[in-house]
Amino acid sequence: MHDDLSDERLMLAYRDGDTASFEALYARYRSRLYRHLAHQCGDARLAEEFYQDIWLKVINARADYEPLAKFSTWLYRIAHHRLIDHYRQHARNGADLFDGGIDPDELPAADSANPARQFERSDLASRLTLALEELPAAQREAFLLAEEGGLSLEEIAAATATGRETVKSRLRYAVGKLRHSLQDLL
Amino acid sequence: MNDTPDDPRDPKLSRLYRKASQGEPPPALDAAILAAARTAAAPQRPPRPWWRRLQAPFALAASVVLAVILTVTMERNPPAEFDSPASAPGKERPAAEQKAPAGPDVGSSALPGTPSAIAPERKDAPRRAEVKQEMPTDARKSLASPPSPAGSGAPESAAAKGLPAPAADLANESLAGSERRKSLAAPAAAPAPQASHESAAPVAQKHPEIWLEEIRSLRRQGRSEEAERSLREFRAAYPDYRLPEDLR
Fold it and tell me: Which ipTM was obtained for this model?
């Protein structure tokens, strides 16, 4: 019944009290949002905390919801702000990356790029996780929003409050680095 | 979503990512979020009507208004019991009121059947029998004609029944106590006897024994001037009456 309805329709139906619409909407995004958060913060416990916070914000904002943008863009914008809040509280550098105070594309790779750790993660998922961790936060976010969220450049720009060209540049850097890291698997 | 020519996404990398990416939220987390969504969407309790919301303030306001009305009413129309302390023995009362024969009459008429109204009369009844024997004929006549119809029955009947004579002190105490009780119990009925007493010849209507007890009571209260005046009036009213030793 709800399969042929758009995300925005489902959210409007939920705003009017239809909980089945929310369940359908939740089913569409649960895995995508969770993986986005898991890859973004690299910590399952934190990812679960963020995941719950984001959905609760969606629930609490239902009364004022208006389909001014795609639901996915709105959802990932909430996720973006939640991550920024976390980085502002716990890691000043991480927030700077998102805020644009530092050029994230010029930053070195993460500490997890050492060979010993790479050897431990021999399987495909671990290689992918490791490669994502090596990306600067903003590039990683752009890649994850594009691949996991399925957002266009404009939607990523709207969700992260940056310009389209900036998103395009970050995504290009991210794709290039990942191809380099995973070239033996491609 | 590589829908524009300048989109830098790589289809091979996208396939690899979808193949390798894994991870699901725990079922408990799903259940908690869905429960929160259902709770938030549950119909809210309809707001109470305005008269239910204002119920408590109205009740409080009504209580305050009632209390104010009662207070004002009590101040303007104080109950009978609150008048007596103002005219209690400690306060100066007119001599006429002190001498008024209101005692037994008022007490018996104000609270008929109550112990405070009946007991004093019974206690002084034997005393009156003694006085009758001592009194001259005129005085006996005045005793036989009671000061008021209401107060006459009990003493006479008590004397006729020949009740045992109690001690004089007991009688004095009971009389003094009865005076206090009467003044407390029947202030509303008091003005009538007072008015009649202030008329032409009220003194002769007063029972001599009761009068003497009032004089004693005045002396005990330290109101010697009033006591002396009352005693002079008594002598004028009952010139042949032999005064007791303590009043000579």
Answer: 0.79
The shortest CB-CB distance from B34 to any of A23, A150, A175 is to: A23
What's the average model confidence in pLDDT over A11-20?
92
**Among candidates B4, B26, B41 on the partner chain, residue whose Cβ is nearest the Cβ of A48:** B26
Contact across the interface for B43 and A182, Cβ inside 8 Å: no
**Domain spans in chain A, listed from the N-terminal domain onward:** 7-181
Please provide residue A12's backbone torsions phi and psi, each rounded to the nearest 5 degrees: -65, -40
Q: Nearest CA to B231 among B195, B206, B198? A: B206
User: What is the separation of C-alpha A59 from the centre of its chain, rounded to a whole number of angstroms?
Assistant: 19
Give the tens place of pLDDT for each residue, B13-29.
999 888 888 888 999 99
Nearest to B8 among A23, A148, A175 (CB): A175
What kind and span of H or E run contains B12?
helix B11-20
Architecture of domain A7-181: Up-down Bundle (1.20)
- Per-residue pLDDT tens digits for B53-102: 888 889 999 999 999 999 999 888 876 665 555 444 544 444 444 444 44
- pLDDT average, residue stretch B103-115: 43
**How far does CA A44 lie from the centroid of its chain?**
14
Residues in chain A whose beta carbon is closer than 8 A to a beta carbon of chain B?
14, 17-19, 22-23, 26, 30-31, 34-35, 38-39, 44, 48, 51-52, 55-56, 59-60, 62, 124-125, 127-128, 146-148, 150-153, 168, 171-172, 175, 178-179, 182, 185-186
Mean pLDDT for chain A overall: 84
The predicted model scores a pTM of 0.49
* Secondary structure (3-state) at A66: coil
